[in-house]
């Protein structure tokens, strides 16, 4: 019986959560059908859904959507990997040496208010439109959250744990392996999550400015020239859905397996651009 | 009435000189190396013009001989106008929605799901849609700013309300406060530190979103438009000058404006904002 | 302590010995949260200008009872009355002071204290006039313009007491008022509260878990049993105010209350183990 109740309770909660969203979609649909909203600017949800089915290739046409999704994912992931490769070592360095951090922080605080997209004009001149420019822009969007989280994680470790290992005769490598990396891992995972989210969020704008033939951002911006609003909305929904999948499913599982198990607490969430 | 506050400790430490020296030296070294590399031809002076040339170009564009005259100042003014309009809108609507979620059951039931559904959409993905609705117009960029700023404001207002203990309401109730009085004397000042924290984060997101939106959707002027426009003419000095201006303006807004606001409220009241 | 002399010369204190009317009446009051019974069958009469202390093992629901009298919580059985009328909601006739002070950090000491009159619609000048008396009597003079964050715990509690008294309540409800103070501060605030009580001629109901506090200050000590709590003893402390903590007779009362209380705690522990 209690399990039955739990399922019922969860189902009710999901319904209560979805109700306002469905209501909004219904109002939208009705507004378009009654002519209150212009279908040319704001297509009905049903029209958008039909377009999504088409783009997914379910009606027998070419499944263009997958191509765009894969191109976008590839760029975002490469940028993220680069951000981790650069951000983590740099974060460790700046986290361990307060002096280095103090000297570098003026440069960092000058970089922080800049949107990664602002570098696009320079990169366009340097490399022209294409994957390289897009990946670098996304990398610039992702590297700062990774860097800052790593720095904070290393800093938060404190000196006593290091001293404990030192007093046992541990070497510098032991300190790194047995103290710094494990203790900063939760912050690292949070940083990865933020970094990936930033990479994904920056991607749209970068693709709108610099993509030649593929990517969700390109699809949306190209659809705009044909006034193909339904495709634009499909693209927007895809961006949101994939972003959520990455954040909740991928990193959610990772956090569950690590941070929550070790610390029985919630990791910091959020982070958008 | 004698108001003797001499007893209250006021911390005012003199600025440590290192705090001023460090940025000057570290940025000086960066720009100095760049300058030398560009001047000696170690890096392309076209792609990476020496900082002195960038500053000179910036100086000219801020004067009557710029093209257009006072161009960079116009760009700054227009970007700030868009930021202010969008953030102002977000502040008003965000606070109202935040209060509705935090204080009322129906508000929570209606707005929370809708907001969680909208939040994962990258702010800039709205730009093409808004371009269709408003065209190339200030309204497009202002709406992007509004979207970028409002989630953080709503979230922090709700957190502020949740952080208040029920005893705070009880104190007001035991003084015979009405619902409206409780809102005015307890809830609004109580959430203010959180609202300012939300504003700080929101403005940060909004500034970055604005620049990107201006690159995608501004018809004329604005810092984002300026750097994108300069790219078409390969005017590297203007691009670097614009990027520098964006960064410095962003810092000034966050440290100067929001910092001053924090000093007058959060720090003066000695409250901690937990997020 | 020049305050004390002034207060003692006040003739109001003497009339307090004449047969006072019942102020708070409890008739079989009970409060339950879901299936948990916090308070059960609470019956007593508290007379005007009486200082009554409620003491009991921690978690016995004594604060719950106080909140119900304040009107923050509703009784689920029986009746609680003030001046013969059932309590329906909080009101300025019952002032409350919490262990955690619950001051408003965005208001100065003075503005915290004037909040009650402000809510009642009094002009600012008049509100300050009223507050001034209690600022003087609580020894807060000179701290009017300080923000609560800059004050020590003892000072904060004085502000909370002054704030409650400025609403001119008939009844002062104290919820473990010394719980968050260190021993030294506690002794001072306790002494001042005794003086204030004599000066203000209020009915005071104080919840505490300290036998020493209860016996030193109260006319009557109500001892509550472990949950579900009901009154297990009603001890009258027949000593004149202000009392000397080192008084032999006070020591005997202290012992009496302690014995009843520890017997109750033992009984509760055995009950728990027996289950």
From TrEMBL, chain B:
GO terms for biological process: transmembrane transport. Keywords: Cell membrane, Membrane, Transmembrane, Transmembrane helix, Transport. Residues 76-261 form the ABC transmembrane type-1 domain. It holds the Pfam family BPD_transp_1. It is found in: Cell membrane. GO terms for cellular component: plasma membrane. The chain crosses the membrane at residues 20-38, 45-63, 83-103, 115-136, 142-161, 182-199, 239-261. CDD domains: TM_PBP2. SUPFAM superfamilies: MetI-like. The keyword Ligase does not apply. It is a multi-pass membrane protein. The keyword Cell membrane applies. InterPro entries: MetI-like, MetI-like_sf. It comes from the Bacteria. Its main location: membrane. Belongs to the binding-protein-dependent transport system permease family. This is NitT/TauT family transport system permease protein.
UniProtKB/TrEMBL annotation, chain C:
Residues 24-251 form the ABC transporter domain. Keywords: ATP-binding, Nucleotide-binding, Transport. Pfam families: ABC_tran. SUPFAM superfamilies: P-loop containing nucleoside triphosphate hydrolases. The keyword Oxidoreductase does not apply. The keyword rRNA-binding does not apply. GO terms for molecular function: ATP binding; ATP hydrolysis activity. InterPro entries: AAA+_ATPase (IPR003593), ABC_transporter-like_ATP-bd (IPR003439), ABC_transporter-like_CS (IPR017871), ABC_transporter_ATP-bind (IPR050166), P-loop_NTPase (IPR027417). Belongs to the ABC transporter superfamily. This is NitT/TauT family transport system ATP-binding protein.
């Amino acid at each position: 019986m209690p399990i039955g109740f739990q399922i019922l309770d969860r189902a009710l909660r999901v319904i209560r959560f979805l109700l306002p969203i469905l209501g909004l979609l219904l109002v939208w649909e009705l507004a378009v059908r009654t002519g209150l909203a212009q279908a040319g600017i704001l297509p009905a949800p049903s029209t958008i859904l039909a377009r999504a089915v088409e783009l997914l290739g379910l009606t027998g046409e070419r499944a263009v959507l997958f191509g765009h999704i894969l191109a976008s994912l590839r760029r975002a992931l490469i940028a993220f990997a680069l951000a981790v490769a650069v951000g983590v070592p740099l974060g460790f360095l700046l986290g361990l040496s307060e002096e280095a951090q103090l000297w570098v922080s003026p440069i960092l605080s000058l970089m922080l208010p800049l949107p990664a997209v602002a570098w696009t004009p320079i990169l366009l001149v340097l490399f022209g439109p294409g994957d390289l420019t897009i990946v670098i822009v996304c990398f610039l969007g992702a590297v700062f959250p990774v860097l800052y989280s790593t720095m904070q994680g290393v800093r938060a470790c404190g000196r006593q744990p290091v001293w404990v290992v030192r007093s046992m005769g541990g070497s510098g490598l032991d300190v790194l392996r047995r103290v710094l990396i494990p203790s900063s891992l939760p912050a690292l995972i949070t940083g990865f999550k933020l970094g990936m989210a930033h990479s994904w969020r920056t991607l749209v704008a970068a693709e709108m400015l610099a993509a030649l033939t593929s990517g969700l951002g390109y699809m949306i911006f190209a659809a705009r020239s044909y006034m193909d609003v339904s495709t634009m909305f499909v693209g927007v929904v895809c961006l949101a859905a994939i972003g959520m999948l990455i954040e909740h499913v991928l990193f959610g599982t990772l956090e569950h397996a690590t941070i929550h198990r070790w610390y029985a607490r919630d990791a910091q969430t959020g982070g958008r651009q | 009435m004698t108001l003797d506050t001499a007893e209250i400790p006021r911390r005012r430490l003199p600025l440590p000189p290192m705090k001023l020296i460090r940025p000057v030296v570290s940025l000086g070294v960066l720009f100095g190396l760049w300058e030398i590399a560009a001047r000696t031809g170690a890096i392309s002076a076209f792609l990476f013009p020496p900082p002195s040339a960038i500053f000179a170009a910036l100086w000219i564009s801020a004067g009557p001989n710029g093209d257009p005259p006072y161009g960079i100042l116009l760009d700054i003014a227009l970007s700030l106008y868009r930021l202010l309009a969008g953030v102002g809108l977000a502040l008003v609507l965000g606070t109202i929605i935040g209060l509705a979620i935090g204080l009322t059951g129906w508000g929570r039931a209606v707005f929370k799901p809708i907001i969680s559904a909208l939040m994962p959409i990258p702010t800039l993905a709205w730009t093409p849609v808004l371009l269709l609705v408003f065209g190339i117009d200030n309204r497009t960029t202002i709406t992007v700013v509004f979207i970028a700023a409002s989630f953080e404001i709503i979230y922090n207002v709700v957190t502020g309300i949740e952080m208040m203990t029920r005893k705070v309401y009880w104190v007001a109730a035991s003084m015979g406060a009405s619902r409206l009085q409780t809102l005015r004397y307890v809830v609004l000042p109580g959430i203010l530190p959180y609202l300012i924290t939300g504003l700080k984060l929101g403005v940060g997101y909004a500034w970055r979103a604005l620049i990107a939106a201006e690159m995608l959707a501004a018809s004329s002027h604005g810092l984002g438009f300026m750097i994108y426009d300069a790219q078409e003419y390969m005017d590297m000095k203007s691009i670097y000058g614009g990027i520098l201006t964006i960064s410095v303006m962003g810092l000034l807004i966050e440290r100067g404006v929001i910092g001053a606001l924090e000093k007058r409220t959060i720090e003066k009241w000695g409250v901690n904002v937990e997020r | 302590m020049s305050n004390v002399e002034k207060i003692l010369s006040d003739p109001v204190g003497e009339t307090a010995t004449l047969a006072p009317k019942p102020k708070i009446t409890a008739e079989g009051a009970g409060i339950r949260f879901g299936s948990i019974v916090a308070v059960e069958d609470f019956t007593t009469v508290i007379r005007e200008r009486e200082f009554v202390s409620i003491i009991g093992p921690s978690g016995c629901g004594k604060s719950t009872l106080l909140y119900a009298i304040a009107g923050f919580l509703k009784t689920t059985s029986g009746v609680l009355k003030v001046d013969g009328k059932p309590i329906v909601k909080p009101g300025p006739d019952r002032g409350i002071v919490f262990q955690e002070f619950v001051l408003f950090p965005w208001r100065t000491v003075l503005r915290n204290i004037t909040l009650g009159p402000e809510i009642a619609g009094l002009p600012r000048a008049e509100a300050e006039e009223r507050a001034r008396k209690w600022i003087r009597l609580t020894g807060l003079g000179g701290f009017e313009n300080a923000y609560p964050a800059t004050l020590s715990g003892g000072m904060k509690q004085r502000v909370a007491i002054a704030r409650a008294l400025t609403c001119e309540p008939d009844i002062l409800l104290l919820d473990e008022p010394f719980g968050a103070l260190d021993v030294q501060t506690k002794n001072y605030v306790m002494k001042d509260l005794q003086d204030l009580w004599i000066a203000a001629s209020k009915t005071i109901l104080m919840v505490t878990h300290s036998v020493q506090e209860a016996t030193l200050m109260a006319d009557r000590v109500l001892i509550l049993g472990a949950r579900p709590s009901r009154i297990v003893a009603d001890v009258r402390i027949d000593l004149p105010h202000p009392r000397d903590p080192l008084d032999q007779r006070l020591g005997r009362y202290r012992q009496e209350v302690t014995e009843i209380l520890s017997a109750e705690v033992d009984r509760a522990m055995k009950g728990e183990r027996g289950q």
